[in-house]
Amino acid sequence: MLSDSPFLTADPTRIFLKTDLILGLWDAFPVSPGHALLVPRRVVATWFDASPEEQQALTEAITTTKEIIEESHAPDGYNIGINAGAAAGQTVFHLHVHVIPRYRGDVEDPRGGVRHVIPSKANYLVKESPATTYGGKGTLVTNSEEPLAERLAQDLQRAQRVDLAVSFLQPSGLTQLLPHLEDLLIQRRGSCRLVTGDYLDITHPDALEQLLNLAQQTDGRLKLRVYQSTTARRGFHPKAYLFTNAVGTRTAYVGSSNLSHSALNEAVEWNYRLTDALDPSGLGQVHTHFEKLFNDPHTTGLTYEWLAAYRKRRKPLPTREKEFVEMLDDTPPEPAEPHDIQKEALKELQKTRQEGNKLLSISTASSS
């Protein structure tokens, strides 16, 4: 029944605008951050049932709503729309005007706008310009023209769900994404799953502790796991960043960058961007394999207890200029130990130096 309109019984915290004729409220299931609805106080089914005064009030409120949205968000554009009748997709039969902020990259190819109500007719330009890029940028991210860190930040700002699989995790890389993760998990109440590894002891315990501390603030929306290479008896080298927005549109980067400052910014890296629009099958495989990895029997939940044990047993790789040598595939060889004959020769060498001699010739059989 019309008198049962959910808009008139909405949580008062959703209401941002009141006039004699209309209400403005935040959509309970937003398409994008800042998605707003404008409804007449009188329950009428469609735009065509509204009075001229109500239609005028709704129209004038669009500009006011735009200004309110931009107090908290920075949209790159807007869609403004009305569904009138079941055939047009209306499900709540109380007239409501959608004011939907749009952001660059929130869909692969936005051309056509509201024409997407019939997807096959949406983009009549598609044959003239294939949708093979992201915001005019290529799908292969190499850090040379734009750092991967900037791409990840853009997708994090639009995401509602994030899945990350990185073999090596460093504080320098986590620090760059942490503000965006905090916004996702605390401000927007999204979710994130992250799996990293202890392979070669390169993952830094301080970065793991930062994530555990963040997890304490998220009511379970940040889930952390560690792939244990020692028990698995195999290496661990995935690097994948997966994003899903509020309407289910998916994006992923799969390539060579671990979560470190160098890998996200300056290092020569190849990371390929996949989207639902361009490669839904490939993207589906990435998501399937992430699920398998996250639930692999060789992964364990990251806890403060596990972290304490890792700190105690950890033997990180040698450093050069105080930075981790991240990308070594094998542990460095043990320093060579001289055998008995070599020890005797070294002893005599030391003795002759102490006697002031500067030249010495030593001959030995090749087998020794």
Protein model, in words:
- With 368 residues, the chain is α+β, with helices and mostly antiparallel strands.
- The chain folds into two domains: 7-103, HIT-like (HIT family, subunit A, 2-Layer Sandwich); 140-313, Endonuclease, Chain A (2-Layer Sandwich), CATH 3.30.870.
- Helices cover 29% and strands 20% of the residues.
- The chain has helices spanning 52-69, 148-158, 171-187, 205-215, 229-232, 261-265, 280-294, 304-313, 340-354, and strands at 15-18, 22-26, 36-40, 77-82, 97-102, 140-141, 159-166, 191-197, 222-227, 239-245, 250-255, 271-275, 299-301, 319-320, 323-324.
- It has an eight-stranded mixed β-sheet, sandwiched between helices. A five-stranded antiparallel β-sheet has the order 1-2-3-5-4, with helices on one face.
- It is elongated, with a radius of gyration of 30 Å.
- The model is unreliable at 126-136 and 320-333 (pLDDT under 50).
